[in-house]
Amino acid sequence: MSWLGLLLIGLGISDLVCSLLRRPRIAELAGAMSVLALGPVAGLTSAVELASVAVVAGIVVVWGRSVSYAFGSGPPALPLTVLGVALGAAVIASGAAPAAGGLLGDWLGSAGLDALADLDPDRALLLAGAVLVQLSTGNVVVRLVLAASGTSNPVRMGRDAPEPALKGGRLLGPMERLIILGLGLAGEVTAAGIVIAAKGLLRFPELQATRREQPRGPGIHAVTEYFLVGSFVSWLVSLASLALLAA
């Protein structure tokens, strides 16, 4: 699982840096360099292992390039395809991936915390990658799926609308995904379901507000579709991460 963990870490760091700096090239470099640096730290030091780490770093760069292209004028399905193929290949090849260890394993064993001492290095990489993916990569995937499905942003549908609809999604999304992931790892699946239901209740007043007569604003159907598609994709990101950690 070391390859999959490194891949998720690289993707998560690349997208997080891009969201903070708005500099795609720097973000891609940060993601790729994190993979190249973390590989040897995790004990992947043989020629073949270093080559595999370089391949993972290259995939991170390809992902970043494809996302920038899609957010420009390219098809949004392109980065989604890159992501799907890369994750699928990493999952299929996980059995052949070398076991992580090295300095990472030594640090986990000597950290002085029972939770870390009992954590396998491969699982530690996967857990770190899963957490990073929730922060910004989840938002990127949501935007790409919305664009690929033709689901219009209600804010952009009417430039003269009194107020933007469904504000705060880019901040609430990562928080929600982290809560779902944390509750799922703690075995509190019911509590995670409550969080999902609570989001619908919190958004209900905003959805109802669109019923008011706003000739130049988005309609209830457009806002509801945008909310449902974005929410379900965001939830799938956290649930897929849980499934990988449970495997």
- What fraction of the residues are assigned to beta strands by DSSP? under 5%
- Average pLDDT works out at 85
What general form does the structure show?
Answer: globular
Succession of helices and strands: HHHHHHHHHHH
Count every beta strand, where a strand is a DSSP E run of 2 or more residues. Answer: 0
User: How many domains make up the coordinates?
Assistant: 2
User: Low-confidence spans: pLDDT under 50, at least 5 residues?
Assistant: 157-166
Ends distance: 10 Å
Q: What's the oligomerization state? A: single chain
By secondary-structure content and strand pairing, the structural class works out as: mainly alpha
Could you give a short description of this structure?
The protein is mostly helical and about 250 residues long. The protein is about 75% helix and about 0% strand.
Output the keywords.
single chain; 247 residues; 2 domains; mainly alpha
Give your account of this protein's structure.
- This protein folds into 2 domains: 113 residues, no CATH class; 93 residues.
- It is built from 11 helices and no strands.
- Helix 1 packs antiparallel against helix 2, helix 7 packs antiparallel against helix 9 and helix 10 packs antiparallel against helix 11.
- It has 247 residues and is mainly alpha-helical.
